[in-house]
Amino acid sequence: MPTVIRKTREQVVEQRERLLQEVGMSHEELRDRAETYTLTMDQLMIWHTIEGLDYLLEGDAESHS
């Protein structure tokens, strides 16, 4: 049975900011480095997590429109 984790929009935004602070890069810098394959494995895992969070945030914004 799959596990479901429920978070508020604010919690997701906070998690995203903490991850960016952890890697010490802006979203743009992290994205650019991902596109040029210059991230460490840990940074890449964080990038994929941020992409997932961004997807959730976009879907949440659309549902509130």
Topology diagram in text:
Elements: H1 9-23, H2 27-35, H3 41-63
Helix pairs in contact: 1-3
Please tell me about this protein's structure.
- There is one protein chain.
- The protein contains three helices and no strands.
- The protein is mainly α and 65 residues long.
- Helix 1 runs antiparallel to helix 3.
- The longest helix is centred in the C-terminal third of the chain and has 23 residues, at 41-63.
- The radius of gyration is 13 Å and the shape is globular.
- The mean pLDDT is 91.
Helix content: over 70%
Largest sheet features: none
Q: Note the total helix count.
A: 3
The secondary-structure element order is HHH
Number of strands: 0
Q: Unreliable runs, pLDDT <50, ≥5 residues?
A: none
| Head-to-tail CA distance between termini | 32 Å
On the 0 to 100 scale, the average pLDDT is: 91
The value of Rg in angstroms is: 13 Å
The helix-and-strand class reads mainly alpha
What overall geometry do the principal axes of the alpha carbons give? globular
Could you tell me the strand content as a percent range? Answer: under 5%
Search tags:
mainly alpha, 65 residues, globular, single chain
Summarize this, please?
The chain has three helices and no strands. By secondary structure, it is mostly helical.
